[in-house]
Hints:
The protein is mainly alpha-helical and 201 residues long. It has one domain (3-199). Helix content is 78%, strand content 0%. It contains nine helices and no strands. The protein has helices at residues 3-18, 22-34, 36-67, 69-91, 109-115, 120-133, 139-167, 175-191, 194-199. The longest helix has 32 residues, at 36-67. The two termini are 30 Å apart. The model has no long low-confidence stretch (mean pLDDT 82).
Amino acid sequence: MTMDMLFALATYAFVTTITPGPNNTMLLASGANFGFVRTLPHLAGISLGFALMVAVMGLGLAAALVAWPALHEVLRWIGVVWMLRLAWLLARAGPIGEADRAGARPMRFHEAVAFQWVNPKAWVMAIGAVAAYGGGDGRLAATMVIPLVFILVGAPCIATWAALGAGLRRVLADPRRLAIFNLAMALALVASIVPIVFDGR
């Protein structure tokens, strides 16, 4: 892969990972509710889980989704249901400091890895990356270079959202403010589902 292609790929990774979406919405909420350090497994699961998704796409899953549209449809609706459940849990989250007693916790590493497979934005990003940047050097680029670039560029981008949430903890110490914030994040998560439902993507 040429330096020009690498720069273009890094730009694509930056733009797609820094912009709002289900992952960043949940990291913002997790940072606010549980702090940055406790959100690190969630953050790592997103970064490594997405890199794994890109590698699997490069090995042929993208072609399989084109060949069997029903598979993509099933994954799409699983993603919708899962995201609605996460939005419900987020909207009902308790005050800071009482979360542990209420049984709430940050998303675990393996849960964040699994979530990438039902996250519609992740599917679009992964297929787009493999289609645009995985052709020249074949599977080597698709399964090694692209995932590595997304880890190196994307991890700091999504960490920014978790850090922003953690920075809001003092402001959100008031239970009423936190309740409003969590409800807003839950609604943002639901809003990200609307295009999936109505556009069929």
